[in-house]
Automatic annotation (TrEMBL):
Protein name: NitT/TauT family transport system permease protein
GO CC annotation: plasma membrane
Annotated localization: Cell membrane
Organism: Nakamurella panacisegetis
SUPFAM superfamilies: MetI-like
Stored Gene3D superfamilies: MetI-like
Domain ABC transmembrane type-1: 82-278
Gene Ontology biological process terms, A to Z: transmembrane transport
Length: 290
């Protein structure tokens, strides 16, 4: 492991410790009704029904399951459902990355395409996701091609792709336009064709922009999958677990917090998987040190 990776790991662990310390300090010393400004509560209540101790949340992972079948513990249910959600999110990420790359290539090749498409690409991310998910599920339910029938999990994957294509398209477009005028003119003076310039110059220059974009897209795909599962009512997946635990959280919300932590970990795992691609393309990462 390089010194940079060690330093990042240590900083991440320190950040988690500080967040946990702030959580416990706020719970122990803040007012029971939370903190309000001009009559509006800006920080939550500190009671166990709203903000359990971190120890209670940790203990919830090992507690026995109540309503969800197929597992003997809360941790087992979260892991099983999380793997299902992660598979859908990664599938959506692949589709979103392909669409994003295609749009970036089109906008880089044609200025008129960039002017026409880029505002709509940005605008697409302003539409409330919770409103789009039922629409996509409804549209998909009416699709029939011979023996093919649209499934609910396909709607979840489409929502994940919908969120992930945006950072990929914008990030890769920026990367494709990053080569300097000197390098571009050099390829032009050598009579390099459009494909050669793309493969030898623009794509390698775009890799440092593509990797962070894919990390954002991976995290966004998990968010889209979880929101879609809760909105559409998919029986499997961690979104369903969150809904079920929220209905059980009247007395002890520790399980709900455990499920939310599980969903957050999925986003980290998805972003970490992109790091494997980063290792394969490390030689294109300019200015990086070991």
């Amino acid at each position: 492991m390089t010194s940079t990776a060690v330093r990042r790991t240590v900083m991440a662990l320190v950040g988690l410790v500080l967040i946990g310390a702030c959580w416990e300090l706020y719970k122990d010393f803040a007012p029971a009704d939370g903190i309000s400004v001009f009559g509006t509560r800006v920080l939550p209540r500190t009671g166990d029904s709203s903000m359990p101790h971190l120890g209670s949340i940790w203990s919830a992972f090992g507690s026995q399951e109540v309503s969800l079948a197929g597992s003997s513990s809360v941790l087992g249910s979260i892991v099983s459902a999380g793997l299902h959600t992660l598979a859908l999110a990664l599938g959506g990420l692949v589709v979103g990355a392909v669409v994003g790359l295609a749009l970036a290539l089109l906008m880089d090749a044609l200025v008129v395409a960039e002017r026409a498409l880029l505002p709509w690409i940005v605008l697409s991310q302003t539409v409330p996701l919770i409103a789009i998910a039922p629409l996509i599920s409804g549209w998909g339910a009416g699709l029939h091609f011979g023996g093919f029938q649209w499934q609910q999990w396909m709607s979840v994957a489409v929502i994940a792709a919908y969120l992930s294509f945006f950072p990929v398209s914008v990030g890769m477009l920026r990367g494709l336009k990053s080569p300097t005028a000197v390098h571009t003119e050099l390829f032009r003076s050598l009579s390099a064709g459009r494909i050669t310039t793309l493969v030898r110059l623009k794509f390698p220059a775009g890799v440092p922009f593509l990797i962070p974009a894919l990390r954002l897209g991976a995290a966004a795909s998990v968010v889209g999958a979880v929101v879609a599962e809760t909105s559409i009512g998919v029986p499997d997946g961690i979104g369903r677990v969150i809904i079920d635990y929220s209905q059980q959280a009247t007395g002890d919300p520790s399980r709900l917090y455990a499920a939310v932590i599980g969903a957050a970990v999925l986003g980290l795992i998805a972003a970490a998987l992109v790091g494997l691609l980063d290792l394969g393309l490390r030689r294109y990462q300019r200015g990086r040190t070991a």
